[in-house]
Amino acid sequence: MSLDTNAILERLKAQAPALRLELQSGAGDLAIKAEPHDLAELMKLCKSDPELKFECLASQTASHYPKTETTGEHFKLYYHLLSHSLKHQLVVVIEALGSAPEVDSVVSVWNAANWLERETWDLLGVSFKGHPDLRRIMNPEDWEGHPLRKDYVIPTQYQDIDNKPSEIAESFKLS
Amino acid sequence: MGKLRTELMTINMGPQHPSTHGVIRFIIDTDGEVIHRCEPDVGYLHRSIEKITEHLSWQGIVPFTDRVDYLCAMNSNWAYVMAVEKMIAVEVPRRAEFIRVMVGELNRISSHMIAIGTTDMDMGAFTPFIQLLREREYINDLLEMVSGARLTYNYLSIGGVNYDIPRNWLFKVEEFLNHFDPAMEQMNRLCTYNRIFINRMANLAPISKELAFDYNLVGPNLRGSGVKSDVRRDQPYSVYSELDFEIPVGEGFGGEVGDCYDRFMVRILEVRESIKILRQCIKMMPEGPIQAKVKNTIKPPEGHFYSRSETPRGDTGYFIESSGGTSPYRLKIRSGSFTGISITPAISKGILIADLVAVIGSLDIVAPELDR
């Protein structure tokens, strides 16, 4: 039977009372917010529980929040789980603090996480503990920095190749 | 006689290789002609579309989604505009929905033609590829009539479509379908049902249901493993809930369930279903407006949204995080090719190098969609 996010949260709370989970509601998708140190256990439970049966990790990504006056630098990690047999889905959000946080890898739960986590590492610089092969995937091996961070500065040179913006590009300068 | 050298040899396949369907590199450890380890190396076509979108207006992103997957630009447009429509809660007019379904299905047929044709060509059958490209020209013509472009259309807009269809377009589509039905059957007789071709593809690199879930295969690749999963059915969007169509799944058409031939066959059968959908749409096409009222400056509410849609490469997810501004805070495209290629190390151990070509063909990898 397919469940909605509220019912899934109830089920998770009943199965693992030690996990600190809360419902995150807002204008967007309903999500379950979890603590970084609970991640591995939560994901294992989501996959193995017979009433949840999340066989698939549909997507994994993150977004970067630089330091502001009220909050420190942090990342939000999003895990989109999907169950084909029960036809329901779930979003899990994790907030990882710091400029280069490390969270648990979920490759041992789903192999799909392997490349998704590599991409998140490459583009955002969030590293994953226990990942078998954490290397860059989109950018070349010798690339410096993580392009999807908000504080990323576009390099003016790469391997003796000039990358200075042309005058025309400057006149259309992006915000 | 000296001792035989038995160590493994590492060879490169690609990035410039005709059968890798784009710029993908495979690093292969070979034991003679048998693959011992195969590791895909991707990223050659990374254009940082996700980064670029953070600087564009919501409407300005649509042409970029054309370039994410140029073989089915209509479906890529659709996947994106649907995500934004979900965010700003816009109701798309009924006529626009039917037009979207029609151009989407036409584009699905043309994309599958390339997938089917190139697989045939990689196996050494050149004629079906040329034959299918000839048929694809008609679809390009039809889509050019509505959008003015032949490959990257930029046709769908947030809240509708950019232009109404020309007066005799529905008639032209029907004319094409009447011509295409027998042409497809001719192609099938030539290659799909050919014993040599079946022997080559059947029982090759079977993917079990569990493995497909584990690597999150989507679309025809997942259905090839016998899983009845289609976003058009599971989470009906647009007007798909009113249309009558089947979801073909792999049944072991040539041998084992989930082998290369099953994945190939699912695409052949899907083309037939798309034809069925198009014929229904021609009959049901309503009159009315084609564009909903959308503000010039779109400012979606703060939050994160994930939208799924069924493109020819399968379930394509657009994850958008909005901070309430005029451009996305973070946009991620989760594409079918990305997971499709990540499964190759798991299924290519112990097969021949020549068979790896068949595996890549059957997974229908499109490099720009994979690297974005």
UniProtKB/TrEMBL annotation, chain B:
<comment type="similarity">
    <text>Belongs to the complex I 49 kDa subunit family.</text>
</comment>
<comment type="function">
    <text>NDH-1 shuttles electrons from NADH, via FMN and iron-sulfur (Fe-S) centers, to quinones in the respiratory chain. The immediate electron acceptor for the enzyme in this species is believed to be ubiquinone. Couples the redox reaction to proton translocation (for every two electrons transferred, four hydrogen ions are translocated across the cytoplasmic membrane), and thus conserves the redox energy in a proton gradient.</text>
</comment>
<dbReference type="InterPro" id="IPR029014">
    <property type="entry name" value="NiFe-Hase_large"/>
</dbReference>
<comment type="subunit">
    <text>NDH-1 is composed of 14 different subunits. Subunits NuoB, C, D, E, F, and G constitute the peripheral sector of the complex.</text>
</comment>
<keyword id="KW-0874">Quinone</keyword>
<keyword id="KW-1278">Translocase</keyword>
<keyword id="KW-0472">Membrane</keyword>
<dbReference type="GO" id="GO:0048038">
    <property type="term" value="F:quinone binding"/>
</dbReference>
<dbReference type="InterPro" id="IPR001135">
    <property type="entry name" value="NADH_Q_OxRdtase_suD"/>
</dbReference>
<dbReference type="GO" id="GO:0050136">
    <property type="term" value="F:NADH dehydrogenase (quinone) (non-electrogenic) activity"/>
</dbReference>
<keyword id="KW-0520">NAD</keyword>
<dbReference type="GO" id="GO:0005886">
    <property type="term" value="C:plasma membrane"/>
</dbReference>
<keyword id="KW-0813">Transport</keyword>
<dbReference type="GO" id="GO:0051287">
    <property type="term" value="F:NAD binding"/>
</dbReference>
<protein>
    <recommendedName>
        <fullName>NADH-quinone oxidoreductase subunit D</fullName>
        <ecNumber>7.1.1.-</ecNumber>
    </recommendedName>
</protein>
<keyword id="KW-0830">Ubiquinone</keyword>
<keyword id="KW-1003">Cell membrane</keyword>
<dbReference type="InterPro" id="IPR022885">
    <property type="entry name" value="NDH1_su_D/H"/>
</dbReference>
<feature type="domain" description="NADH-quinone oxidoreductase subunit D">
    <location>
        <begin position="122"/>
        <end position="297"/>
    </location>
</feature>
<dbReference type="Pfam" id="PF00346">
    <property type="entry name" value="Complex1_49kDa"/>
</dbReference>
